[in-house]
Amino acid sequence: MSTVNYSDKIPNNVNLSEDRTLQRALEGWQPNFVNWWDDVGPDGSTGYDVYLRTAVSVDPQGWAQFGHVKMRDYRWGIFLNPGDASREIHFGDHKGEKAWQDVPGEHRANLRRIIVTQGDTEPASVEQQRHLGLTAPSMYDLRNLYQINVEEGRHLWAMVYLLHKHFGRDGREEAEALLQRTSGDVDNPRILGAFNEKTPDWLAFFMFTYFTDRDGKFQLSALAESAFDPLARTTKFMLTEEAHHMFVGESGVSRVLTRTAAVMNELKTDDAQKVRAAGAIDLGTIQRYLNFHYSVTIDLFGADQSSNAAIFYSSGLKGRYEEGKRTDDHVLKGQTYKVLEVKDGQLVEKDVPMLNALNEVLRDDFIKDSVAGVNRWNKVLEKAGIPTRLTVPHKAFNRQIGALAGIKMSPDGRVVGEAEWAAKKSEWLPTPDDFAFVASLMGRVVDPGKFAGWIAPPVMGINRQPVDFEYVRFG
Ligand SMILES: [Fe+2]
Ligand SMILES: [Fe+2]
User: Fold this and answer.
1) Residues within 5 A (CB) of ion ligand 1
2) What digits encode the pLDDT tens for the residues 428-450?
3) Hey, where are the domains in the chain?
4) Do you know which Gene3D superfamilies this protein is assigned to (predicted)?
5) Closest CA to 467 of 244, 163, 255
6) What ranges make up the beta strands (E) of 279-416?
């Protein structure tokens, strides 16, 4: 069951060939997917052989097989973690009942919406990152970008499989629409805000994969608890790939910091202009990028109070992060949670029904996880003897969604007036000058083992290969 059938046109471990109608429908979608990849996937990459990891089974030993392949021939397919026939729903009003193998009619619209919203983010990030290959700081980094891109493509496949198998004609139409929306398109944009932002340079890419792929981790973790068993099983497998995406972000920023700290020590300076003149990225710019990506990403969790969040939980569609490890009643009726609101110009906490605050619960879990990695970045600075530390901004900073949208906050959590915001904004968020400077560093460095001057080499290569391995063959 867990071995992937590669003799099929569509690699899968779901016995696809036994369901001819579904197989034909997915084989009909496949060429549209490849057209989408050719149109808005990684720019100029068609002829390259890339050292990619491909899943051949969902077992720990089998999901990572490495070899050089052309990306458009990547074995995108359908992989579900093994099922457990006795699995029970473990939260919400249906707690203790058997998990669903098909979609109950009354939850059809909500489940479709959840799957489409998740599915929409996957091709969106490929579109956002499509030009980055042209300015890769090394062949190693180029390969990591492409690995993430093909896996986001596979995540789209995972959601499209669910839509085709369980949602009939509506599902097939949604699967088509997933290829029609485009990140940043004025007329037909992607569903969520952060997925319509540009990823203009590699510092933005590392921040995106650190913060925004981590949003993916938390959303997928919540869906991995779902009473709808096929959704739980497919998201569990997606999580193994998401971990690598966050690794690329975390190690990428670490390497930028390593290089910046080395330049600061060489020149014995913390002057941003001198650091820039030496071809490294100053810490102020890194902090502003962090502020931007963090605040845009925490908006993805949605409004702090949401009746939909309560419905999704109580009906068993979406659990909490690590639901199974929590020791409460997993029903949450009558419990409360603290959210923030602005009262008389001040931020105050207020208690609201926990079921309605589950977006905020997930956001707070995300924040804890994010801060842990920022502390690891600070270790790089500490080891280099640099006294500056990176911090995540206050969670009310630069918010566009929920009760905190529309108020002006400093990163350290003070409500500020329009005048102070206007005066300080350029210290808090990346400026056109920051973007222009970072863009000026982005030149393509792709000789094996060579690295752009603004980033340190990684400690190790991929799959125990040397750092100067030929990760991409340009042909
Ligand atoms: Fe993904
Ligand atoms: Fe990802």
Assistant:
1) 122, 152, 155
2) 999 999 999 999 999 999 999 99
3) 83-473
4) Ribonucleotide Reductase, subunit A
5) 255
6) 336-343, 346-353
